[in-house]
Amino acid sequence: MADLMIEATDVGKAFGAQKALDGVSVAVPRGTVLGLLGHNGAGKTTLVNVLTTMFPPDSGHAEVAGFDVVAQAHQVRSRIGLTGQFAAVDEQLSGLDNLVLIARLLGASPHEARTRGNELLELFGLADAAKRPSRTYSGGMRRRLDLAASLVGHPEVIFLDEPTTGLDPASRLGLWEIVEGLVTDGTTVLLTTQYLDEADRLADSITVLAQGKVVAAGTSAELKAQVGQRTVTVTLADVSDVPKATEALARAGMQPVPAQNTLTAPVTSSREIAKVVRALDEVGLEATELALGEPTLDDVYLTLARHAA
Amino acid sequence: MTTLTTAPRWRGTDFGTQVLVLTQRSLRALVNDPRMIVFSVLQPLIMLTLFSQIFAGIASTPGFPPGVAYVDFLMPAILVNTAMQSALQAGVGLVTDMKNGVLARFRSLPIRPGSVLVARSLSDLVRTATQLVLMLVFAVVVFGYSPAGGVAGTVAALALALAVGWGLGWIFLAIAAWLRNAELMQTVGFLAMFPLMFASSAYVPISGLPGWLQAVANVNPLTFAVDAARSLALAQPVTGVVGALVTSAVLAVAGWLVAVRGFKRPL
Q1: Higher pLDDT, A168 or B170
Q2: For A15, which residue in chain B has the nearest alpha carbon?
Q3: Do B3 and A154 touch (CB under 8 A)?
């Protein structure tokens, strides 16, 4: 257990009558990324706030870097970095001064603070804007400065709360690469996101939250398998052909679900598309469109929420 | 990526350094954008200019201290007024930090919440002192302000105004920590302070006010603050200085206790 950098056990938190977290448990080993997946209001930010000592849980227990988030909040704070949903930068200060401020508050000398600040600005491609007030930065630059600010103290655990929401695709990719670099260096990351592809790319394991509860946990592959895999959707030119096609696919061992002029059937691999084509060919039908659908976060939700209910 | 190699482990710093660094931060924002100081001095300057001209005749009315120029009478009140307006800004600054996420960042760092409040209060004190000195220079150069108390009396009056503003600043920090709304604070602050300033001894001697207003002015705490500052500047028998200082200290302690409690609530 020594190498679990984040460990939450049965954490509960309510705001009035609203249960934001209802018995949530997560465990993140050192040097790995946990993707916390969920829609708005699922409880992701509340969990991040509990783990980053912003407020204590009502029930349950949580440790970060081996320290209790309630009783040893100070020790936790000196080992974590936090990047919230909104770039938390002091607009009056330059990019460099923002980073120097954090480093000084962490205990760096003025010289060390400047060195660290410049190092991070370089790393995040902000060196040219180092002396400019951060209020003149673009949205993407602010996000990068915010992320840099959370890394000033060489944190062992980093919390990224929807770090790419509102970023353009290039900035998004750049941020992913930075996170991957940190993990290579041994940093532990908890990432909240609404995007399955983001969790897919970065996370070693994924926990899905819905209405304050963990509805699924596992690797991306495990989760998709649990959700009921991918689907193939066949579109037919003539609605009257649908029953015939449904029969043909059923004979081929699939479970097609008709809807208007389309048929949707779960598949385990893309190779099964050939099976679909052959089955249709045998009854003299041709699909006007064949589409392979990846499970989306919505599928995860629909499937898992149904299981949970 | 070399963000973790050669990593020095910074584990936090002492309260004094926290306060120092955070105070410097607020003051640096002021240096970076001096418009804030300029605009905050502008309003009291306009008041000083208008009142010293419009009400100059009051100096020859009965009830006015004999042999005192109106500008010498007015200036201590302007100092107190400016310090009070400035106190409101301490609260506004705190709310701004809450809204733009800077405080959330501070909270994720190993620092004491109180250091943020103390730094706010200290940087506000420096800002107010700068404002008051600018005002005084203007009053001396343009309006020939030269009270009987001389430099010593003026500095004492300035110090008293600062103390009053500082104590009141803690009240606004407390309100800010709970209310967390800059616009509302500014409106409420203005609505509360504007009538208080006029229903006091600030601009005319109390004996020149209508009866009902005299009743208000006689119990208005501002009257005591203004009278104390004025007695210092005009080298009159000192009245109410201890009372003003004690009141400020009480306000500061009460404000501190309430502010820290409010500040610790989740953002």
Answers
A1: B170
A2: B266
A3: yes
A80/B12 Cβ within 8 A:
no
Of B115, B98, B116, B107, the closest CA to residue A69 belongs to B107
Residue of A67, A83, A101, A137 to mutate, interface with B, max B Cβ within 10 Å: A101
**Residues of B whose CB is below 8 A from A92:** 28-29, 32-33
DSSP-derived secondary structure for chain B:
--SSTT--------HHHHHHHHHHHHHHHHHH-THHHHHHHHHHHHHHHHHHHHTGGGGGSTTSPTT--HHHHHHHHHHHHHHHHHHHHHHHHHHHHHHTTHHHHHHTSS--HHHHHHHHHHHHHHHHHHHHHHHHHHHHHHH----TTHHHHHHHHHHHHHHHHHHHHHHHHHHHHHH--HHHHHHHHHHHHHHHHHTTTSSS-GGGS-HHHHHHHHH-HHHHHHHHHHHHHTTPPP-SHHHHHHHHHHHHHHHHHHHHHHHTS--
Question: pTM for the whole thing?
Answer: 0.82
Q: Do B10 and A106 touch (CB under 8 A)?
A: yes
Contact list, B104 vs chain A (CB under 8 Å): 54, 82, 84, 88
pLDDT grade for A14, boundaries at 50, 70 and 90: very high
pLDDT digits (tens, 9 = 90+) for B198-223: 899 999 888 888 999 999 999 988 89
Burial of B42 (0-12, 13-18, 19+ CB in 10 A): exposed
Enumerate the residues of chain A whose CB falls inside 8 A of the CB of residue B127: none
